[in-house]
Amino acid sequence: MNYWLMKSEPDAFSWDDLVKQQKGEWDGVRNHLAQRHMKAMKKGDRALFYHSNIGLEVVGIMEIVEEAAPDSTDETGRWIAVHVSPVQRVPVPVKLKTMKADPALANMVMIRQSRLSVSPVTEAEYKHILGLAGL
Fold first, then answer.
1. How many angstroms separate the CA atoms of 67 and 15, rounded?
2. Fewest 10 Å CB contacts: which of 15, 77, 92, 130?
3. Is the pTM of this model over 0.90?
4. How many domains does the chain have?
5. How confident is the model at residue 127 (pLDDT cuts 50, 70, 90)?
6. Where residue 40 sits, what CATH number does that domain have?
7. How far apart are the C-alpha atoms of 17 and 114, rounded to whole Å?
8. Which residues pair with 54 in a beta bridge?
9. Can you tell me the distance from the alpha carbon of 33 to that of 57, in angstroms, rounded to the nearest whole number?
């Protein structure tokens, strides 16, 4: 199993939106590196749902339920999307400030490349963030 962090602006698509839908298309990603990460995702992988711009925190855990397929919001046919489902909300949201201050997360891709909306997370980083989140 691989682990990921996926960012969404909560005023556009929030954790609560995903919970209501139960399955959502993670679409609109137009960065080539983020797209490569999405192409590498496999069914059953886990992803941290991160609220960007508002909140700046990990708020939930998702599962990849459908692998890369054409992005329904892309009229050019060049971009892909994956489908995700909520696994659980974290008991304690993990703030970006907390992650940046934690030496165990110093090499995390999201910390080093903060503008990247989809990034890999190591198993150790994933478990550490879950610990910070009260799981």
1. 20
2. 77
3. yes
4. 1
5. very high
6. 3.10.590.10
7. 24
8. none
9. 22
Token pair belonging to 26: 């993670």
- B/e letters for 47-85, b = 16+ CB within 10 Å, e = fewer, are bbbbbbeebbbbbbbbbbeebbeebeeeeeeebbbbbbe
pLDDT of residue 44: 98
Find the angle CA(124)-CA(41)-CA(5) to the nearest 5 degrees.
Answer: 50
**CB-side neighbour CA atoms (13 Å) of 74:** 15
- Spell out the SS3 assignment of the chain: CCEEEEEECCCCCCHHHHHHHCCEEECCCCCHHHHHHHHHCCCCCEEEEEECCCCCEEEEEEEEEEEEEECCCCCCCCCEEEEEEEEEEEEEEEEHHHHHHCHHHCCCHHHHCCCCCEEEECHHHHHHHHHHCCC
What is the span of the domain harbouring residue 45? 3-132
Chain segment 62-115, per-residue pLDDT in tens = 999 999 999 999 999 999 999 999 999 999 999 999 999 999 999 999 999 989
The residue written with tokens 């992005």 in the block is 71
Rounded Cα–Cα distance for residues 116 and 38 (Å): 12
